[in-house]
């Protein structure tokens, strides 16, 4: 049986893979309970975590279900915003790529720096 954090990660991953927009119905809560083979309490805890992150909301009543609240999270790489929607890469891979790019940019900046640039940095 998976832990609540693992269920949260699985649900978030599915939301990203399905590229759902804000307001789109994700699933019925009962469907998620059955699919993950967990108790209602355990699923409610996972859904609560995602509600707190503003990823989804649960709507009771005739039009009930689990719905998408906000677009997926983003990662800021310098001045570039990368949204996780539709990306098939892991966040760790993105941060590793950022580190490699920053090293390369630093090297180029050092090679092209003028004496005035060095004084400005000091």
TrEMBL record:
<dbReference type="InterPro" id="IPR036390">
    <property type="entry name" value="WH_DNA-bd_sf"/>
</dbReference>
<keyword id="KW-0804">Transcription</keyword>
<dbReference type="InterPro" id="IPR036388">
    <property type="entry name" value="WH-like_DNA-bd_sf"/>
</dbReference>
<protein>
    <recommendedName>
        <fullName>HTH gntR-type domain-containing protein</fullName>
    </recommendedName>
</protein>
<keyword id="KW-0805">Transcription regulation</keyword>
<feature type="domain" description="HTH gntR-type">
    <location>
        <begin position="1"/>
        <end position="71"/>
    </location>
</feature>
<keyword id="KW-0238">DNA-binding</keyword>
<dbReference type="Pfam" id="PF00392">
    <property type="entry name" value="GntR"/>
</dbReference>
<dbReference type="InterPro" id="IPR000524">
    <property type="entry name" value="Tscrpt_reg_HTH_GntR"/>
</dbReference>
């Amino acid at each position: 049986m998976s832990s609540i954090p693992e269920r949260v990660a699985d649900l978030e991953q599915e939301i990203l893979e399905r590229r759902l927009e804000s307001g789109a119905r994700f699933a019925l809560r009962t469907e998620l309970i059955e699919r993950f083979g967990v108790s209602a309490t355990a699923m409610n805890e996972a859904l609560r975590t995602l509600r707190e992150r503003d990823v989804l909301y649960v709507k009771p009543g005739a039009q009930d279900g689990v719905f998408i609240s906000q677009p997926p999270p983003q990662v800021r790489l310098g001045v570039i915003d990368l949204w996780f929607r539709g990306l098939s890469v892991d966040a760790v891979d993105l941060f590793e790529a950022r580190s490699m790019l920053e090293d390369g940019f630093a090297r180029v900046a050092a090679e092209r720096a003028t004496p005035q640039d060095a004084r400005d940095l000091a």
